[in-house]
Amino acid sequence: MSSRKSKSNSLIHAECLSQVQRILRERFCHQSPHSNLFGVQVQYKHLSELLKRTAIHGESNSVLIIGPRGSGKTMLINHALRELMEIEEVSENVLQVHLNGLLQINDKIALKEITRQLNLENVVGDKVFGSFAENFSFLLEALKKGDRTSSCPVIFILDEFDLFAHHKNQTLLYNLFDISQSAQTPIAVIGLTCRLDILELLEKRVKSRFSHRQIYLMNSFGFPQYVKIFKEQLSLPAEFPDKLFAEKWNENVQCLSEERSVQEVLQKHFNISKNLRSLHMLLMLSLNRVTASHPFMTAIDLMEASQLCSMDSKANIVHGLSVLEICLIIAMKHLNDIYEEEPFNFQMVYNEFQKFVQRKAHSVYNFEKPVVMKAFEHLQQLELIKPVERTSGNSQREYQLMKLLLDNTQIMNALQKYPNCPTDVRQWATSSLSWL
Amino acid sequence: MAHYPTRLKTRKTYSWVGRPLLDRKLHYQTYREMCVKTEDCSTEINIQVGQFVLIKGDDDENPFVAKLLELFEDDSDPPKKCAQVQWFVRFCEIPVRKQHLLGRKPAAQEIFWYDYPACNSSINAETIIGPVRVILLPPNDVVPTDLKNEKTLFVKLSWNEKKFRPLSPELFAELNKPQEGAAKCQKPVGAKNKSAESPAWTPAEYVAKRIESRHSASKSRQTPTHPVTPRARKRLELAGLGNSWMSQQASCATLDSPGRTKRKVAFSEITSPSKRSQPDKLQTLSQAPKAPETTRENGLSYTEDDKKASPERCMILRTRIPPLKTIDIRDERTLTPIRGGRRSSVVPSVILKPENIEKRDAKEAETQNEATSTPHRVRRKSSLLTMNRIRRQLRFLGNSKSDQEEKEILPAAEISDSSSEDEEASIPPLPRRTPRTVSRNLQSSLKSSLKTPTKMPKKRPKPRTTPCCATPQIRSRILAAQEPASVLEKARLRLHVSAVPESLPCREQEFQDIYNFVESKLLDNTGGCMYISGVPGTGKTATVHEVIRCLQQAAQANDVPPFHYIEVNGMKLTEPHQVYVQILQKLTGQKATASHAAELLAKRFCTRGSPQDTTVLLVDELDLLWTHKQDVMYNLFDWPTQKKARLVVLAIANTMDLPERIMMNRVSSRLGLTRMSFQPYTYSQLQQILRSRLRHLKAFEDDAIQLVARKVAALSGDARRCLDICRRATEICEFSQQKPNSPGLVTIAHSMEAVDEMFSSSYITAIKNSSILEQGFLRAILAEFHRSGLEEATFQQIYSQHVALCRMEGLPYPTMSETMAVCSRLGSCRLLLVEPSRNDLLLRVRLNVSQDDVLYALKEE
């Protein structure tokens, strides 16, 4: 009887959990504009006022939103746009053009995209745009025709703004800023970038036309707020169907945030990066550990996720190497120590390895040279070693100069964890002179 | 194709003649005849089914032509008068790219049977202007070219959107049938002439009238607009893509005739003042002092008394050109349904005319004696006078009246014909379609809205552009833009860079120099180059625009010969050779490839062709026209040296030594030594600019303005920066003063904040706000630099330093991957300079900030 009850219970749990996971994953992966803004109220106010002035008064503007990656630039503008569109008199009155420097890699593509997003391509009937120049003058003419009071304002959002500055002559930027500074169709140019030196990238004419409004997003929050964000990100919304479960879940989150070990994990994470995306990553990994039999997140989940996050990728690769390859890496490490970071070639590594094998012949099998060569090439493929110059066809592979891309500490740490490592090899690693 | 003056604004009443013939099947009543009366009943025209009529369209000079097939009353409530028509198209209404299908030059008065069933053929009967005479020609006949009556049109071919075809015989027979008796339906009501009591307007009345008419105009603009215009022709309009170009062409084609017709109209109008709307009276008035000239031109020996005494002649004239009186201006047609109580709804373009006349009158006192023969020197003198007057005007900006005047003067961008002023005044808004003037127009509306925000209509009529515009535009907004409410908002609007001020303070000398240069070239009918340099934001382009505007006014007043003005911008071209395409297109409307355009232009400028107007070419951002062979620059500067070219080139660029630096000798030699450089604004100049913009607006403390001016002058002298900072300061002020809700004054603190916001470096805040690990990494970089004595280190070296530092402080040291992530994060926001696309130990790292800044930022915790 009780077993059946628990079974049905777990079934409900499973349903709830899949829902929870869906909601939270959505939250972590997409930047939904429904989440709250943290500590950027001033910037938000500035931006939304500016957009409103463009939309309602027809005032042209240009602004750059600058902040490191993951600081919420896109979220800020999405929020502001959403709020703007909720105003009734604005929603029908504003056109938006979204461009991304990674997609619109030159002005030609950008213009096509602008034309498409402004729905201008159909206006000329069956006419298909011929040349870049035609398209360009067409668009400029279209924008020129408007005026402050009667034309529909256009909001241009340029994501990865710095990449637009690399376009030839910065033609697009010049013209956008020029329109924003002349009595034509009212436009707002909003650039999003993570580069602090963005103004130095602009050509002087372009720079002069830019209004020099900059909104900085700097992740200027402290740890207590970080914990608050953590809580908010993990708690379920009030409209969750199963109220009881939601209540329990939120209670659990509250408990978690007060637990010391969790705080430690968060502190460590916070010290590494204030980026909210890395927090999302951590939460995502711990969320994956939640199952029907383990319905609530625990501190251990978080700790393990944190470990996963801070894993050293190169050391992980080393764990999977064969003993021969480990030996080669140790030989390279010794060469590095002896010759002070000078590059080495295969022959040198092979000689070093041979010296070790001759001493400790009983513990390591003496491989043929081609086999060792193969192992060496495998290391190169794993990018644990890298040729100093580009591989040229004629030079012999044995004599090509290489550099090791692992640090000594990394090698030693990896060896500690390496399973079934022969003691001799381990000893050899600590000192190149141990065989003496 | 005659030229139809459009300023005549009379209301027409339409009524049926005869009993309705009830059509049972269709449930509406059809009629045989309709009567059109002008409001004062001076003329009434009967229009019968089967007659050819003119129908109001967008192009006032070329109203649509159609044959009336049926007249009926719609079953809507109240019943609307409708008509069924068979359309004809003019040559200019045929899409430009299909015009060549005709295979010959069309005759000036040739129209085509429009054989296109998809075209909606029912129209509102009230859009009918009046009857027209259309003659059908057998296919082998030649269209007579020099007929005395410009009102007669000829049909020879049909057009079905694909090709021209000769008219079929049965169609021919049918069409020719009802022609007879059409003309006699026009009954001029000559008896109602009231010419005798033509009142003499005193100047005061005249001004009052003008204001009144303006009021009525603005009032009429307020009214909601219902497009009851014949949408029927939509299809046709769509087909007529390059509209502006076409109309231009059309006006060129009619150049020979309009002068005469219009003069006649003017005369005929004099006889019936009650019917005339405001501007016409003014025009008549203004004509008086110029009578000798006019008569000479006309070859008619009229005097004022004569005009009164010759009603018969006027009658004749009227019968000859009936459509001229009944034609309507395009804007007004939107008002048709609610036209009721409004006697004279005048379109804005009409209001402008009195100004011109007034100006001319004022000037006449000075130049009357010289007017008869104008040798160059005299002309120049008179233009100097104009210049002075303009200056005076600019100085008296406080005076609202002169403000208005300033506003009202609209330069016609292209003075296509060299006839008398009267004609220019009566040219329908055609020349205003050129972008330059449009923006000026817009400026004026903007300015006026600044001055009288409450009086201005809240809801402006949307420019309901018909689909036949050549280039599309951003769709117009549904809700009107809000006008500024508070002082700060007004200040912000004026401080926007786009708000071109009434005058350009602090650039008087440069203005004078450029003006004199261009004017002398215009007067001497020669060409020349001028090179203008200056750092961005010093008013180069604005000054040149101002010069051109003044010159265009002067050209309107006949002080300088008319000229073409063309503007190209190096930054608005996709590649240098496109400049030819743009120049050619703006000059002639032709489209061509770059190389072909270059040939055509060379032919135009280098060969001795027919004498043309001088062309003034502004080349902005000259340095972008640099090519390897420098052929573009060479051509641009070579053409003016040609004898017949009459081309004035004003080249603008940023660097003073551009000719020496990037141009070959042969190019820079052709550019010549006429150079001018715009110095960056000094602080007092910037202050003056700001003050002039904020005149009569108490929004800023004096010190606040001075602070901004000094800061900007010290950094760049860029006026744009100055304006932007002030604009931002008003926002900050508004933001900070929101709570007490009092009209704030921008203080020093607000300007200071704005200046800081715009000029302060963000690196230090960025470092302060970075995470602990990032700060540790920066510290490790400093340590490594200190150790090695170099300004560059590999990632590995920094990492070992970092680990050492962490050990020293007893912190858990981060893994390599984490540190690498930190490094790339710092690199992406350019606190560090790292090698692109390399993420290994050998990555070389540099600081993008000075070490002192980093130390300073890290210390303050």
TrEMBL record, chain A:
<keyword id="KW-0238">DNA-binding</keyword>
<dbReference type="InterPro" id="IPR016527">
    <property type="entry name" value="ORC4"/>
</dbReference>
<dbReference type="InterPro" id="IPR027417">
    <property type="entry name" value="P-loop_NTPase"/>
</dbReference>
<comment type="similarity">
    <text>Belongs to the ORC4 family.</text>
</comment>
<dbReference type="GO" id="GO:0005730">
    <property type="term" value="C:nucleolus"/>
</dbReference>
<dbReference type="GO" id="GO:0006270">
    <property type="term" value="P:DNA replication initiation"/>
</dbReference>
<dbReference type="Pfam" id="PF13191">
    <property type="entry name" value="AAA_16"/>
</dbReference>
<protein>
    <recommendedName>
        <fullName>Origin recognition complex subunit 4</fullName>
    </recommendedName>
</protein>
<dbReference type="Pfam" id="PF14629">
    <property type="entry name" value="ORC4_C"/>
</dbReference>
<keyword id="KW-0235">DNA replication</keyword>
<dbReference type="GO" id="GO:0051258">
    <property type="term" value="P:protein polymerization"/>
</dbReference>
<dbReference type="GO" id="GO:0040038">
    <property type="term" value="P:polar body extrusion after meiotic divisions"/>
</dbReference>
<keyword id="KW-0547">Nucleotide-binding</keyword>
<keyword id="KW-0067">ATP-binding</keyword>
<dbReference type="GO" id="GO:0000781">
    <property type="term" value="C:chromosome, telomeric region"/>
</dbReference>
<comment type="subunit">
    <text>Component of ORC, a complex composed of at least 6 subunits: ORC1, ORC2, ORC3, ORC4, ORC5 and ORC6. ORC is regulated in a cell-cycle dependent manner. It is sequentially assembled at the exit from anaphase of mitosis and disassembled as cells enter S phase. Interacts with DBF4. Interacts with POLQ.</text>
</comment>
<dbReference type="GO" id="GO:0005654">
    <property type="term" value="C:nucleoplasm"/>
</dbReference>
<dbReference type="GO" id="GO:0003688">
    <property type="term" value="F:DNA replication origin binding"/>
</dbReference>
<dbReference type="GO" id="GO:0005829">
    <property type="term" value="C:cytosol"/>
</dbReference>
<dbReference type="GO" id="GO:0005664">
    <property type="term" value="C:nuclear origin of replication recognition complex"/>
</dbReference>
<feature type="domain" description="AAA+ ATPase">
    <location>
        <begin position="59"/>
        <end position="202"/>
    </location>
</feature>
<dbReference type="InterPro" id="IPR032705">
    <property type="entry name" value="ORC4_C"/>
</dbReference>
UniProtKB/TrEMBL annotation, chain B:
<keyword id="KW-0238">DNA-binding</keyword>
<dbReference type="InterPro" id="IPR003593">
    <property type="entry name" value="AAA+_ATPase"/>
</dbReference>
<comment type="subunit">
    <text>Component of ORC, a complex composed of at least 6 subunits: ORC1, ORC2, ORC3, ORC4, ORC5 and ORC6. ORC is regulated in a cell-cycle dependent manner. It is sequentially assembled at the exit from anaphase of mitosis and disassembled as cells enter S phase. Interacts with CDC6 and KAT7/HBO1. Interacts with LRWD1 predominantly during the G1 phase and with less affinity during mitosis, when phosphorylated.</text>
</comment>
<keyword id="KW-0539">Nucleus</keyword>
<keyword id="KW-0479">Metal-binding</keyword>
<feature type="compositionally biased region" description="Basic and acidic residues">
    <location>
        <begin position="355"/>
        <end position="366"/>
    </location>
</feature>
<dbReference type="InterPro" id="IPR043151">
    <property type="entry name" value="BAH_sf"/>
</dbReference>
<dbReference type="Pfam" id="PF17872">
    <property type="entry name" value="AAA_lid_10"/>
</dbReference>
<dbReference type="GO" id="GO:0016887">
    <property type="term" value="F:ATP hydrolysis activity"/>
</dbReference>
<dbReference type="Pfam" id="PF00004">
    <property type="entry name" value="AAA"/>
</dbReference>
<dbReference type="GO" id="GO:0033314">
    <property type="term" value="P:mitotic DNA replication checkpoint signaling"/>
</dbReference>
<dbReference type="Pfam" id="PF09079">
    <property type="entry name" value="WHD_Cdc6"/>
</dbReference>
<keyword id="KW-0235">DNA replication</keyword>
<comment type="function">
    <text>Component of the origin recognition complex (ORC) that binds origins of replication. DNA-binding is ATP-dependent, however specific DNA sequences that define origins of replication have not been identified so far. ORC is required to assemble the pre-replication complex necessary to initiate DNA replication.</text>
</comment>
<dbReference type="GO" id="GO:0003688">
    <property type="term" value="F:DNA replication origin binding"/>
</dbReference>
<dbReference type="GO" id="GO:0003682">
    <property type="term" value="F:chromatin binding"/>
</dbReference>
<dbReference type="GO" id="GO:0005664">
    <property type="term" value="C:nuclear origin of replication recognition complex"/>
</dbReference>
<dbReference type="InterPro" id="IPR027417">
    <property type="entry name" value="P-loop_NTPase"/>
</dbReference>
<dbReference type="GO" id="GO:0005654">
    <property type="term" value="C:nucleoplasm"/>
</dbReference>
<feature type="region of interest" description="Disordered">
    <location>
        <begin position="352"/>
        <end position="469"/>
    </location>
</feature>
<feature type="compositionally biased region" description="Polar residues">
    <location>
        <begin position="269"/>
        <end position="287"/>
    </location>
</feature>
<dbReference type="InterPro" id="IPR041083">
    <property type="entry name" value="AAA_lid_10"/>
</dbReference>
